[in-house]
Structure formats: C-alpha cells, structure tokens
Amino acid sequence: MGLENHLEGMPVIATRLDEVINWGRKYALWPMPFGTACCAIEFMGVVSSRFDVSRFGAELVRFSPRQADLLLVMGTITQKMAPVLKQIYDQMPDPKWVVSMGACASSGGFYDNYSVVQGIDELVPVDVYVAGCPPRPENVIGAIVKIQEKISRESISAWR
Amino acid sequence: MVERDIMARVQAQFGERVLASYEFRGQCAVTVRPADLRAVLVWLRDDGEINADWLLDVGGVDYLGYPDDDDREWRYEVAYQVYSMAKNHRFRVKVAVPEGAESVPSVWDLWAVANWMEREVWDLYGIRFEGHPNLRRILCHDEFEGHALRKDYPINKRQKLSQPAENLLCDKVEWA
Amino acid sequence: MSDGTSVPPIPSELLTLNIGPAHPATHGTLRLQVQLDGETIVNTGCEIGYLHRGFEKQCETVYYQFVIPYAERLNYMGPVHNSNAWCFACEQFLGIEAPPRAQALRVITSEMARIIDHAVCIGTNLVDIGALTNFWYMYNYREKIYDLYEELCGARMMVNYPRIGGVSQDAPDGWFDKLLTTIGEMQEAVGDVQHLVERNRIFMDRTIGAGVITKELAISHAVTGPCLRAAGIPYDVRKAQPYWGYEKYQFDVPTAEGGDTYDRTIVRFQEMYESCKIIRQAVASIPGGAVMVEDHLVALPAKDKVYNTMEGLINHFKLIMHGIQPPKGELYSATEGGCGELGFYIVSDGSPKPWRVRIRPPCFANYSTFPKIIQGKMLADAIAALGSINIIAGELDR
Predict the structure, then answer these.
(1) A13, A130, C345, C373: which has the fewest C-beta neighbours closer than 10 Å?
(2) Minimal CA–CA distance to C120: which of A31, A74, A45?
C-alpha cells in the first residue's frame, strides 16, 4: 500500500489485532489450580521438572483467582465445595477459560452419591474436559494446548 | 491378653449390664446400654489388666433391614475401638441405640479425639451425644437435611448448599 | 502524649482471618478461621468435609472387590497402601491369607508408597515455609517410583494392584533390579534434602517449637504415625501387631522427643531410610510361588482357564456377577499407613456387599489436635505445623 515507504526501515508487521492479542494470551496463561483431590497430585507432576508445563507458557501458577485466567479444576467437587468454586470462577477477570481435569470434575466419576456434584458444568462453563482418573500429565498438557487452539480462534470482540 | 479374656473380664464385672457379646475371627466385642457406656470405657481404661487407655475410633452402624436379626431391639450401634499401648491388645465396645431415642453420653472429656468423631456420627447417623460442647455437622454442609449414612437415606439424594458457613469460630471451652 | 511521658495504648481489636478452602497452604480442602491478636492466634475454627465424597455410603453399594479403587483414592499421596490395607482387611474377614510372595510384594509396594508420601509431605511442607527447591528435587524421585509402579501394573498413581487374596500380577523380569537402583538413588536424594534442611538456620527457626504435640495430647487425641513417634511414643502397627511378615524384617521405629514440626520432619526422613531398608530386605528374601490364593471362591481363575474351560468361565462369571460371599460378622483391621494407623471396620450381613465400612482415618485424629497446637502461637507457625501433620483430605473427609 506504500505505507512501508514512509516508515524508513522500521520493522513492521501488518496483522489483525485479534492475531496479536490471541498470540499473547495463549502463550501466557496464568492458571489458578483449584485442586481438591488426587488430580491435584498429578498436577504437581505436570508442573514438576519431568513434564514441565512451562514449555507451554502456563507455569505461572496463581493461587489468587484475580490474577489468573485459566481455572484448572482438579478433583472431586462436593456439594459443600460447590459455592466456593462458583465464587472463585466469578472472581476471575475476563477473559477466562476452564479446564475440568479428571473424571470427578467432569462427571462426578465413580462417586455417584449424595455429596458429590455430578460434573462441574452444573456450576461453571467448561472449555476442555480431560478424561482419566487421574489423567496422566501428558493429558493435562494436551488440554492446555487445546485451550491455546481455542484462544487462537477467538476474537476480542467476543469478550466484551 | 487375648480379646476373649478381656470379654470374660468385662462380663464378670458388668454382668447383666452387658446386653450382648460377639466373637468373630478372634476379635471380641460387647454391647452395652448408653447409660453404662462411660462406666465401661472408664473401667476398661483403669483396670490394671486391660489398661485400654487409647480410644482409636468411634463409628456408627445402622442395622435397619439387617437380615435374620429379629432379636436386636435397637436400630443403631456406635462402636468404640479401644487399644492398650502398654499391653498391646484391642477391644471393641458397642453401645445400643434404639430408634426414637438416639442419644449417647459423650466421652469427649475423657478422650479429646471423641470430639470430632462424635460430631461425625451425629452428622451421618443423627445420634446425639449428650454433653458434647459443639455438636455441629462436620462432613456434610450446614444446610443438609437428614443423615446420610442411615439406611433409609437414598444414596442419590443430593442437597445443594447456597452459602458457605460464615463463622467457624466456636466457644473456646472445646479446646481448653 | 501531650506531656511527653506516657504513651496511650494503640486501639486494637481482634482480626478474624479466613484461610481456605482454596488456599495453597491448606493442601487441598481444609478451611481455617483464626482470630488474631496482632500475629498471635487466640481462637481457631476448623472446618473439614470439603472433600466428603461419600466413600462409606458408596462402599455399601458395591461388592467387596470393587471397593479396592475407592480405597485407593482415599490417600492419594501413597495410594497403593490403602488398597493393600483394604484387601488385607477382607482377607482377615474371610479367614484366608495371601501367599508369601504376594505379602512380600505388598510390603514392597506399601513401603514405596510410604517413601513417596513422606517425600511429597516434606516437599510441600518446605514449600509452605519458603523452600521450593526441595519439592522439585523430591518430585523427580516420586516420578521414578511412579515409573516402577507403571512397569508393575500399568498405572502410575492409582495402581489398583492388590486383590483380595493376593496381588493382581507378579513383578516383571528385571523389575527388582530397577527397584533397588531407584531405591539407592532415592536414598541419596533424601540424604541431600536432609542435609539441606536439617541444620539450616532458617528451617530450624521456623519449625523448632512450632506446633508441639505433647505425649498427653497425642494419647488423648489418638494421634498415630510420624506425629506420634515425633512426640516420643514408639508405636507402629508394623511392630506392635505385625502383618505381611513385617516381623521378619529388621527395621527401627524412629522417634524424637519434642513433638514439634522439626521433629516430625526428621522422623519422616528417618522413616524413609527405614522403608528403603525394608524394601532391600524384602527383595533379598522374596519367596517364590504364586501371588494369588488357590481359592475359587475368592480368586479369579487364570485367563487360559476362562477362555478354554467351561468351569473357568462359570467361575469367573460367578465371582464378577455375584461377588465374594463372606460370613456374617464384624471385624476391625489395622495397618500402618503413611500418616498413622489406618483401620477398616467392616460389618457384613453375609451378602457380597459390605453392610458397613467404617474407616479409621489417621489424619482425622491427627488433625483434630490442630486447633490446640496452634493456640497462642504465631500465624506463620500454624502454616508450618499444618504441612507437617500431613493431612490428606481424601482420608480426612472420606
């Protein structure tokens, strides 16, 4: 378009705003680990040296929901815990994504009884479900990659 | 001392006040009325031969619908597992709790561990412990109605909680 | 201060602080409320039950052998111990005994579970008081133990390895050699971490005198496990009432005197060495033979019998569809778990489903001391003490 001629050699990339923002968002996920049970121990494996989630830019674990944009729900959510999870989700600033890790968080798992919530999608919207009881660390990293793919398809106008 | 000898000593000491006694795979237990519970536990603790100074566990059982069980005149039992560290033997005392009069004297002043364990039995079976300083639910949430481990509580009956408990601080006497 | 001689008191009131249930220092799902005078705790409220998964009710709806995975998920720090303990309780109930090789394999897997339990307990406790390195270091070795489990039975964490009457399969070729290598590395790593913290000034200042469980308190609260041994009482179910042939192995029960957070940590370090010792002896003296009892009422038949003979097929079908038929009765079975005496109280009505399964969770009794041991202490001491009691919410709330 001739614009480059006026920039006198400054490095410039012409792109869409969505692309830039999504690129930034997807490689700088700040997870809030809401770990209640066995899956939380496997998440320790995810962040530890062997599996090392920092290769995917999601290692900066925040225990304050107000500083996080990825809610990882790991473990059984009971009726007693349900309002707490809802409150934590509400406290997270937009844009935010939710990973439901493991059978219990996704569906109640094999705890079909009076005290277990049958899937956290009764409480919060879920982006990625991870199967397994508990899932292997590779599965959790797979879920983070799925979230990244999802982010790259989003538009900033959708979060208004 | 083997558990059978402990049981014999308890029977000799308390006679008619022992409602029933059991033996299975070398483990023995006696059932007593709630009114005698504290006396039996204290005697087991203070008897030189038995010296069961540890209360390891308190757990309820609901016998509603237990097969071939017509002579059991009570619905619930609360089982107290005691242990003697010096003598290295175990024993079990059960207290018979009839339906409609679900009340057992608390032993929290003798063994502090009974505090939470009795709260759990109250929560799951609805058995009241008289003299307990803070008989609140412990595992289920505060808005839960009914008692989950009773046999007539449907396993799938879920109850939602609207608001987490605001104040957990309790009377300091419990921790004195 | 008008005359320059007296300072009026600073107006102060008690601060109520809520910690948890989603707080990193609470290791999952505990909730605390403390009333603070400055930084000193004057009153505490503890709330548990945030992970109450209805284990005991759920057990009443499934057959005895299907409780194994539920039991395993009670204690996710050292899962295989609980399933071993459950199978052992069922065997006691049925009046059978697992073959010697299976018992030795149970000892080995349980001691591996104890090592990784203590490793993560110490690691997370150190994270809470500001030492992150040890956790990453210890976790590497936990992964190595996971690898061994994976090779043994296909799963890394929830292994579902034992069965009522034995274990599901024998160890593969060369597994014991790998185990001994890993145990050697693990022991070195534990030594490294111990040297980092044992005489570390910051660690000692933070933990000595924090969260003291005295002997009297321990007896009154039926505290068991490392917390009890740190208080100076050498009680260990493995020694007091041996099972799985623990009486054959030479090992010590480490104790300490103070009962504080420091002592609990040191006792855990020493227990890890003792576990390594037990594993080495168990591997050296492992008996040959079957790993499952020869009892068609308890053990599933071999796969070639199921596929090629009618009797085997019917036997398999009967066990899966109708379960194990125990006698009527009730029994309390105790083993030494990662945090203390793990008891299963089983009441049976003669049907293949348990009438009542009551667990004696070690953490429950241990944690009930917590409000007392932090009374009058600083808030930071409470955080250090909380990690050192090693509370596993799955077992605490069931």
Answers:
(1) A13
(2) A45
3-class SS string, B94-120 = EEEECCCCCEEECCCCCCCCHHHHHHH
CA-based nearest distance C102→chain A, Å: 26
CB of C157 within 8 Å of a chain A CB? The answer is yes
Provide the shortest C-alpha distance from residue A160 to chain B (in Å). Answer: 29
Nearest to C31 by CA among C11, C15, C13, C51: C51
CA distances from C140 to B124, C145, C146 (A): 41, 9, 10
For residue A143, name the pLDDT band (cuts at 50, 70, 90): very high
First and final C-alpha spacing in chain A: 32
Strand partners, B57: B81
Which residues of chain C are within 8 Å of residue A112 when distances are taken between CB atoms? Answer: 58
Residue B59 amino acid letter:
G
Kindly state which CATH superfamily the domain B3-163 is placed in. Answer: NADH:ubiquinone oxidoreductase Nqo5 subunit (3.30.460.80)
Interchain proximity C394–A34, CB inside 8 Å: no
Q: What is the pLDDT of residue B172?
A: 58
For the cut 80, the answer to whether the pLDDT of residue A16 exceeds it is: yes
| Second-level CATH architecture of A30-149 | 3-Layer(aba) Sandwich (3.40)
Residue A133 CB-density burial (10 A; 0-12 exposed, 13-18 middle, 19+ buried): middle
Tokens of A40: 């939380």
Q: Which amino acid is at C237?
A: V
A65: distance to nearest CA of chain B, Å? 18
Cα separation, C15 vs C217, in Å, equals 28
User: Residue A2: its pLDDT value, please?
Assistant: 62
Q: pLDDT tens, C124-182? A: 888 888 888 888 888 888 889 999 999 988 888 888 889 898 898 888 888 999 999 99
Q: Where are the domains of chain A?
A: 30-149
* A83 at B interface, C-beta within 8 A: yes
Helix (H), strand (E) at residue C395: helix C393-397
Residues of chain B neighbouring A83 (CB-CB closer than 8 A): 161-164
Output the CA–CA distances (angstroms, integers) from residue A41 to B44, B144, C182, C276, C385, in the order listed: 42, 30, 21, 23, 20
In chain C, the domains with their CATH numbers are: 45-397 (1.10.645.10)
pLDDT of residue A125: 92
Measured between CA atoms, the residue of chain A closest to residue C392 is A37
DSSP summary character for residue A6: G
Q: CA separation (Å) from A65 to A26, A69, A86, A89?
A: 18, 8, 11, 7
State chain C's mean pLDDT as an integer.
Answer: 87
Say what the pLDDT of residue C1 is. Answer: 46
- Which residue of C147, C157, C392 is the best one to mutate when testing the A interface, meaning the one whose CB has the most A CBs within 10 A? C157
In the numeric block, which tokens belong to residue C75?
A: 């204690």
Residue percentage of chain A with pLDDT more than 90: 19
B68: tokens are 């071939």
Q: What is this model's ipTM? A: 0.89
Chain A partners within 8 Å of C140 (Cβ)? 48-50
Backbone angles phi and psi of C306, in degrees to 5: -65, -40
Give the sign of the dihedral formed by CA A55, CA A61, CA A65, CA A67. negative
d(Cα C175, Cα C348) in Å, to the nearest integer? 38
Of B24, B81, B139, the CB nearest to C52: B139
Q: B169 to chain A nearest CA, in Å? A: 18
pLDDT for C279-312, tens place per residue?
999 999 988 888 888 888 888 888 888 899 998 8
